[in-house]
């Protein structure tokens, strides 16, 4: 048995490996990690699970019939033929060549969104993008599912630099603890979300900081879930129905305005457009004053609680936080915009512990107070193709080639895609309306996927190439604020014939005559050394030992520089010397630029407009439960859903649905029952959990159960993947972000057959004789 240290987005931990290097015997947290992620408990099972991709495989009908649109992708009965690496690489290289030749380079979609590995070198997307760039380019994707709306909106309101600072050096935890009287957080402060950090943390300090802070700072959490925040340390819960925060935020501003509590000095000196918001909340535009009573009729948040909260917010140092989730819904831009406006009316932006934050409770590195160090990077080169999509428009891209759509004030056209190439992401986890995604994927001529596991995405692919996991290769890793750049040594031997992305793509590049340009004559070990030494020698890098010493030592210290100043503090101290990168140099509470785009949904200032996914919407007559689809506590997205920790959360063998006991009683549902959940787009089976921690009329299911379409006669997914229910629309035509955070559903007890979950089974394999060569 050997013990190694390894790193993933959910943390740094130790694995005990069997003597033959094939099995993970145990995975245990790193010594001084104060709040390690339970996702570590999935690793041993996931490593050599039956669902690992062991050999390259090609879909039989693609082999037999050649490339082309095919609705049988991923359907029951679809079979794969395992082939050797040479055959797989040759098929892949020739197909890429054919598609580029026939349809042009923009017909290759290589966006490949996803949270694959945490390493700096074996990062699937970086590897794939470099390879695609060197072989002709590809249609790419921009932005993220995480902050798809904010990433476009906030630069218009506060400028690009301040938007980056809001993420990289927000008001830090220690400042909140010291200065903030009241932290008002929309979407809570979810402990489980702070277990995840891009690159992975070796010490998870966020939840400890939050608890300590809650000792001196009063926390008010507005959400449909009580346990979104630390109710055990006294956080106060105010219920708000999903997707209605904008109404509550406008009402809070209404109270400040009506009661003379707005900071007029701040508004006139540091912002533009406050008058437009005032007109909006007074009802001058539409005759509807945005009073707390008005907001209650939309959000079900008691008017008295809103009025009282506004007064409390004005009475001391207040920080307004919005979780990422608030903007991951229809018209999600407005919630973020309204929260920024509320903070501006309070006048504390740029003061210690006051103002606006966007990420507490969403990511573990948010506000840790240490500047993220420069890290080694693997160069992706330049993409000769300029076509792109906002990442959450993937189905639209494939279903509507040539069609025009709006994005950030521009009119773009979806290019025509023949081949999609995915490595390190799982669109059948992350995208909304999986039925629609299947129809979109069916249109491809060819779908190529690198995967560690037979995910639903792999099962919908034509060529599946087995990738090694982080445990099976050497790398370096660190998350923002970490104390060390870690040497992550391979702990186990690769499962089956799995190869590193670098080796797979080197093989393809060689076959396409671009090998030297891609690998530059180095193998993976030489690249790691090269990246490290280049980083070490760069002028901005911290002092670090030579590679061999670093590797031997297991890491190199990273600087722990405190934020030089928090976002907006210099702007506040001297707005003339430090203007924001906006047209006015100020915070734009109304943006003329956005208004100039002429979008009805986004007039330039925040407004409440009715949504299709809202308890007051017409659909709610039938789909009367508003389901929150949040991040899973015991795994990262869909990763390792077959592992012990993730399995421990399942109810009746599937993803749990948490709902209020009154809603359950009205439907004859008892704890532990199997329930069927439906939306106009699809249906799933889930296991019922009854709790008073969720508002009546709302419910909650986490994302990430593996899509299981094996029994369409019973439900579109029998394992409980919420994305069969969600609707696939952009937040607004401004940013076209993902709307996956919530969806209207109907819930009923399921008395029929309860089928076995087949999601973790490998696909059917056809005999080798089927290879048409
Ligand atoms: N309804 C709804 N949907 C959502 C969300 C929501 O709130 N609601 N949240 C969204 C958000 S914020 C995000 S970020 C996305 C996340 O979506 P994804 O990042 O796509 O989800 P993951 O499950 O992390 O997918 C990563 C995949 O990479 C594979 N993998 C791991 N290591 C490697 C490797 O080294 N090489 C290769 N080739 N593959 C590897 C894993 O097996 C896994 O299948 O989901 C989004 N989807
Ligand atoms: N354990 C774990 N941690 C993770 C991840 C994971 O997969 N697992 N994923 C990581 C990633 S990639 C991201 S982007 C972040 C995402 O960070 P977030 O987007 O903040 O995370 P969510 O869990 O989707 O949402 C947090 C809470 O917001 C509430 N909420 C949802 N919609 C609304 C709304 O309209 N109004 C209000 N007031 N509340 C609402 C829900 O009750 C939910 O529990 O999480 C990261 N952290
Ligand atoms: Mo995300």
TrEMBL record:
Its cofactor is Mo-bis(molybdopterin guanine dinucleotide). PROSITE patterns: MOLYBDOPTERIN_PROK_2 (PS00490). Belongs to the prokaryotic molybdopterin-containing oxidoreductase family. Transmembrane segments: none annotated. Residues 52-510 form the Molybdopterin oxidoreductase domain. Residues 29-51 are annotated as: Disordered. The keyword Zinc does not apply. Residues 627-740 form the Molybdopterin dinucleotide-binding domain. This is Molybdopterin guanine dinucleotide-containing S/N-oxide reductase. It holds the Pfam family Molydop_binding. Residues 6-46 form the Molybdopterin oxidoreductase N-terminal domain. Gene3D superfamilies: 2.40.40.20, 3.40.50.740, Dimethylsulfoxide Reductase, domain 2 (3.40.228.10), Dimethylsulfoxide Reductase, domain 3 (3.90.55.10). It comes from the Bacteria. Keywords: Metal-binding, Molybdenum, Oxidoreductase, Periplasm.
